[in-house]
Design a protein that fits this description.
Elements: H1 3-28, H2 33-52, H3 56-73, H4 81-102, H5 110-124, E1 144-147, E2 150-153, E3 157-163, H6 174-182, E4 185-193, E5 211-218, H7 222-228, E6 236-241, H8 244-256, H9 264-271, H10 276-288, H11 306-312, H12 318-339, H13 346-373, H14 376-399, E7 401-403, H15 405-409, H16 411-422, E8 426-431, E9 436-438, H17 439-460, H18 464-469, E10 476-485, E11 488-495, H19 502-511, H20 523-527, H21 551-559, E12 564-570, E13 574-582, E14 587-595, E15 598-603, E16 607-612, E17 622-625, E18 628-634, H22 635-638, E19 650-656, E20 659-665, E21 667-675, E22 689-694, E23 700-704, H23 706-726, H24 729-733
Parallel strand pairs: 8-10, 15-23, 18-20
Antiparallel strand pairs: 1-2, 3-5, 3-6, 4-5, 7-9, 10-11, 11-13, 12-13, 14-15, 14-21, 16-19, 17-18, 19-20, 22-23
Length: 734
Amino acid sequence: MDELTSVFIQEGREQLQAMEDGLLELEQNPDNHDNINTIFRAAHTVKGASGVIECHFIENFMHKVENVLDRLRNNEIKVSSDLTGLLLRCCDQLSRLMDVLQAAQPEPDADTKAAGDALLVELTGYMAPSAAPGGKLVESEVEVHTSGGGVMITDAWHISVRFGPNVLRGGMDPLSFIRYLATLGEILGLETIPDAMPPAADMDPESCYLGFEIRLQTRSSKADIERVFNFCADDCELRILPPDSKLAEYLKLIKELPEDDMRLGEMLVRCGALTQAELDEGLVSQQAAPAVEAEEGQDAPPPPQIGEILIDNKVVHKAVVDAAVNKQTQVSEKKAVEARLIRVQADKLDQLIDLVGELVIAGASANLLATRSGQGELIEATSVLTRLVENIRDSALQLRMVQIGETFNRFNRVVRDVSKEIGKEIDLVITGAETELDKTVVEKIGDPLMHLVRNCMDHGIEPGAVREAKGKDRRGRVELNAYHDSGSIVIEVCDDGGGLPRDKIYNKAVDKGLIQPGQTLSDQEIINLIWEPGFSTADQITNLSGRGVGMDVVRRNIQSLRGNCDVSSIEGEGTTFTIRLPLTLAIIDGFLVGVGKASYVIPLDMVIECIEQRSEAAERDFLNLRGEVLPFVRLREMFEIEGELPERENIVVVQYAGQKAGIVVDQLMGEFQTVIKPLSSIFRHLRGIGGSTILGTGEVALILDVQALVQRNARSEEREMSLNAALPRSTANN
């Protein structure tokens, strides 16, 4: 694929997304004309660019779409659900055509072509007939007023011509120009202007002193009218003012001009509001304007602008000049923004992150060697190097950070289509769209979010009649929310539906043999059964759900990103799925600790404080932290590390998802830039370890999975409480 086609596909998909977003907005606000213009410009850009790269199957298809959007923009057709649905399906077809182009296929296959032909047939129903009944064209742009018994057509060209004195000497008859002008249309008014005529005694019979004010009704352009007077262009003064309908047309054409670096005069000539001769005359006047000398101590005023000269010469309306100036400003501002942006391939960014990771490891090694040498100057130099490496690391990671709003906005279309398919009225509410996270995480979170949103719509939101019977708003609501918390990003998918039916889930789990009949489970344990493979509470299989495939895959995909997903629900009020993910999968700030000869890294964002282990807590797995019970885990016992206990142990207090826990270690070794290295697949079932890193000494340190450790403590505490509750009171007291 050549570079030009690659750029077209990339920018074309951006315009396609703009069209789709605009159409979804249009359905909610049909009177937003700015939005309609945005949709039209996006379609027009795709059509024009496809013509540049000579992709005719996209150009021909988008030409029909553009015609319908043009009628919509001109209020010739009204916004309707059927029309927006059709245009959205056209967006889908355009996406398929771009896939064909990206695959370097000369033409779309038969199925794709048939789908496009079917859409073109539907679009034809919204297109204007080329002629009125009987074959007579409709003069829609001509304004007609009736007064008394006469008819006056007010929308006409106004031509002001003053013939020079040498016209007759050159063998030209002024009336012949008027007669030829009549062949272009109908002369509605003609007034002779004799202002230049001298007294009778001073008249020269071979000189012409006449001028005319003419009102002409015609479909010809300004350039066509000007060409009538080409033979006497040097011996006459000509001013041509367009009718009001032409003024609106010029404004429209200026808005549709390509975003090129054009001068003001070029834009006016391109749209037809100005002829080249008028522009040349204006430029001559600008160059001939006398220079104004500046007063002492002040700068010289700028020369007159070409727009002002053209308005003073009465060859173009001020509104048209203002529109052209605004177009110039928009183009220059957009190009200024584009000049600050650069497109970089994702694999090049990944390579940069890998190199930065190696730089971090090398910097840690140099810092360690400097510390061991004891040389003050070397230690100071490596500390400066370490600080610079940290800044490079942060800047490199920032390059891969993108806003999650782009992912969220894709669900506007999903909610619209699915709600119509299942016959429910559902709104999508998005908050926190500006929250940033690693591009790699964004790419992989789309599918899990898609399943959760569709699940909320199908299972969670009740039909409108059921909601009204419960006293709810007939329209359901699905919410997508994102925010940062303790070095992680939290994504919430919420609905205001009926919630998860605990009794139904319990009975279904018993039927599938997931639990034993009569087994006692907490409410949260019952809710968590939905994550089991093959589990579904749907009464029947639909296109959306019911096969029991999905929720376990959702959790597995999220866990592969070192994240987790929890669910909470209140029957009758709704359900909330909470996804917690790391901000990046590459480099983090860590807190280095040691147990025996082994080293471990705890993500620094999750560390709250470090305290000394007291002797009275040596036999227990919890302690009193300022009136709060803090459970902790001993890494030495968990990983079965041999060796004698140190004289002093430390507890690192960590927090994850609002839960606190302690991690008992031997040594506290300080902050450490951690380059995350994935573990081999043979370690994928290892609990409590989230990856590895390389220390400055070249040794490998394991990165602790704080989420798994906190949850392990929580489960141990629940089991202990359940055991105490099951034991006889006398035994428990003993």
